[in-house]
Amino acid sequence: MANTKSAMKRVRQNERQRLRNRAIRTKVRGTIKDARAAEGAASSSVVLEAIRALDKAVTKGVIHRNTAARKKSALARRLVTAK
Predict the structure, then answer these.
(1) Which class for 67: exposed (0-12), middle (13-18), buried (19 or more C-beta within 10 A)?
(2) How far apart are CA 23 and CA 50, in angstroms?
(3) Would you say 53 and 77 are in contact if contact means Cβ atoms under 8 Å apart?
(4) pLDDT tens digits, residue range 2-43?
(5) Predicted local distance difference test score (pLDDT) of residue 78
(6) Residue 1 pLDDT > 80, yes or no?
(7) Among 3.30.450.20, 3.40.710.10, 3.30.2310.20, 1.20.58.110, what is the CATH number of 5-82?
(8) CB neighbours of 57 closer than 8 A, spacing ≥ 6?
(9) CB-CB contact of 47 with 76 (8 Å)
């Protein structure tokens, strides 16, 4: 366990960040799943929502920008082939 005051603070910070990151990552996964399952005219708006969630996760440092770019590209490809 942490011995110093600063180490104890880092433990508290890490726990807060872990919970925040987990919530963001869960939201991203859910929106991507919805976007993949969407069909018809509503699919483009669902894909845009997933892309927005990915961009927010990158901004907050939860996922790497290249990972987000890869996932956005895959969603866009699926959207184009569906139309």
Answers:
(1) middle
(2) 15
(3) no
(4) 799 999 999 999 999 999 999 999 999 999 999 999 887 789
(5) 92
(6) no
(7) 1.20.58.110
(8) 24, 25, 28, 63, 68
(9) yes
Q: How many CB atoms are located within 10 Å of the residue 13 CB?
A: 10
Domains of the chain, by residue range, sit at: 5-82
Beta-strand ranges (E) seen in the chain are: none
pLDDT of residue 14: 97
User: What length does the chain have?
Assistant: 83
Separation of alpha carbons 83 and 5, rounded Å:
58
Query: Which tokens go with 50?
Result: 């997933």
Whole-model pTM?
A: 0.86
Residue partners of 39: CB distance under 8 A and separation at least 6: 82
